[in-house]
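During the reporting period the student researcher (J.K.) took over the structure-prediction task from the postdoctoral fellow and processed the backlog of single-chain submissions. One of the processed entries is reproduced below for the supervisory committee.
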Amino acid sequence: MKSIQTTLYLTQKILKGVFLIGIFSGFNFFTELDAVPSKYGSWVGTAVNLGRDAKGDNVSYRGIVVRLNESGNACVVFDGDTMRMAAGWTKGGLKLDGLPFTGGHGRFPSHGGEKVFVTQAVPGWASPKGELADPREDKYSPLGPLSRDWAKFGGLYVHGDRVVLKYTVGKAKVLESPTLMEKDGLSVILRTIRIDGDGQDKTLVLSDVRDGENVTTAYAPERSKQEVKDGLNLLHLPGKKGVTTFQVLYGMSEVQDLKKLSTKPEDLLALTKGGGARWKETVKTKGEVSKEDKAYIIDRLTVPYNNPYGIQMRIGGFDFFKDGRTAAVSTWDGDVWIVRNIDEKLENLEWKRFAAGLHEPLGLKIVDDVIYTVADDQITRFHDLNGDDEADFYENFNNDWDLTSGFHAFCFDLHTDKAGNFYFAFGSPVRSGGRSFERLGRHHGSIIKVSKDGSRLERYATGLRAPNGMGVSPDGQVTSGDNEGTFVPRSPINWITPGSFHGVVDVAEDYKKFKTTPTVRERSNGRPQHLDPSEAPKPLTWLPKGVDNSGGGQVWVTSDRWGPFDKELLHMSYGRSALYLVLKENKGGQMQGGVVKFPLRFTSSCMRARFNPSDGQLYVAGLKGWQTNAGKPGGFDRVRYTGAKVAMPNALRIKLNGVEIGFTSKLDKELAEDTTSYAIRSTNIRWTQGYGSGEQDKKSYEVKTAKLLPGGKTVFLEVPTIGPAHQMEINIDVETAGGDEIVTKIWNTVHIAN
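J.K. obtained the following structure tokens:
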């Protein structure tokens, strides 16, 4: 072992905290934690309230809470926005309040006990120019990550119960791992930091300085310097190229006692190669294959609600690997599981826990057999480094959006286009109770587009409230649903184009230019409330509450083995746990249309859907939260086409004097041309700052004549005054030429009638 050449001792009065910093090299050391982590794993991604300081509420929005012992009463919080070690404690644990933990609205995790140390919401390291002033917005705590040239979170490695954080500071590469040292009645939090320097001086923020009896001491190499400035304990490290490893100790004790627990730093690189499997026990389930005699039936992939790890299986995203027999699912509680043996019979399903700790991952996409998830804090790309079917490196693929602690600002769904760009829907921070919004960042209420390599992020479209799902067609057409509330009078299906606006003025890209007043005070700038109806959005369709009170995602049919709907669009309802065929029409650039329901009953809600590349069938997943009639906490279903005749509408075209309805099968002429086989009515809604909308302008329409057109699959209904109308309902009671009943409804919107 190389000897330490120089030591430097500096002291400063602080409250109940002693910090000892030492530089060591050339020795491998491993501090093993207790082998049984909590059910969430060795870390939890979440926003954390760290208490109030002189500037205001100190919140780590991209918090990574690392467990330091089995009981979880010793933890540190690392902030993925700033690279600061935000707080640490050895008593009291973390109160996992709010979603998804306790279900509480308007709350989020906190630690209200005595902390060994706290760091205010500032950059954890100085900029490449040596600046510590925070360049982000003035409101405390500031939002969003630091610029990439300042510092960037790269992800984290998991090795057993250990966590190794990876990030950059300037061009320097940093690995850092926290542990708990306990000996002779002392409990000390230790940070081992390995920095591969870029030759530039660095300044590390250690903690806040607080008045009290104890002291902080730096044990550092030659030319290092500890300084107290602006209420912060700082450590200045001399510029060096190459690797330096040092430790930071935090404890409630005297300096000499802490020195007894100082150790020679371990080789953190050894913890980045993949550790042993933590979740060795798999769960086997037997699916339910339907024997119903219908065109479309539901097969159920039985979800392991009771599993050895105590995790709720509320599925928020899924996708298939190339073989089609294997899928990955993410859960609201932060897990990713691998599902194997997906075949025709579903008799031997095997579920393997792959990852844990994620911050509400409600979207998952597999690209070239690599799993990506989107959670509130980042898109994660997963790496299994040693082939044991568990993630060893959780790579931050992109986290460039502003994140707050809003309980209702989820990142929903994850898709790619043909060029490989990623898309997800980022909700607005709805207030508890549903009206208006909490603190807004720069990216809320948007469809977010991320480049194929993860290096660039942009707002693709804006004005969304709570879009629990979206879709991207094979040729790149983007769609989304949304949830009724402020500026969303009913749940829509949005036809999205670059830069398009979809209703919520508060989160519009150019909200300052709107005549309509936002609801959030900071964005209304004192203007009196005003509403300009001409600024209202025109979605493809507005859906009545009984049809969809909270939209899910969309999927395009990409299989010719799934009946007569190849290349058509499907819509899912989270609120009504239903699947719909979308009947769309382009009227001079304005999309309009409606939906018709598939007569199916799902295990849980309908949020996500993918077509299996192996069997060509549609798979649907969802979860049970609030505002849904879902049955089970989570569901994973196969919608299988049996080959039987399909009898339902498949097209809708609005004419100047009526409506054309297409069907999948030839119709019985007599019933098709009987005007009493149809009934049409409509209502209008109001786009306002209020929550949802009442209905007005209720109207019934006379069907003067009905004519079956050549080919026998399309009927024209003569209706002299067909629209416009926000919500139209077309009741249909006909039969196919073969005698099969078609008793159904189309719910649609008419923007243009010509």
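The committee noted the following: The longest strand covers residues 186-198.
J.K. will present the remaining backlog at the next meeting.
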